[in-house]
Specification:
The protein is an all-alpha fold. Helices cover 73% and strands 0% of the residues.
């Protein structure tokens, strides 16, 4: 549930890019075509989404001590 909460803290654009690329396993080019944006934009959104999820999880009490 904490991962879901962290995903909710992202902007819609970042969440969609992250879910499509990492959870659904779609390629950057495929997602870019679907969203009508350049591939670099999808890569950037995924990068910043991952940073955002990490920060959100840290705020929720998660650590890298696993």
């Amino acid at each position: 549930w904490q991962v879901e909460e962290a995903l909710r803290m992202l902007t819609e654009e970042h969440r969609v890019a992250l879910v499509e690329v990492h959870y659904r396993g779609r390629g950057y080019a495929d997602v870019a075509e679907q969203l009508g944006v350049p591939v670099g934009t999808v890569k950037s959104r995924v990068y910043y989404a991952l940073k955002g999820v990490r920060l959100a999880l840290e705020e929720l009490g998660w650590t890298d001590a696993f």
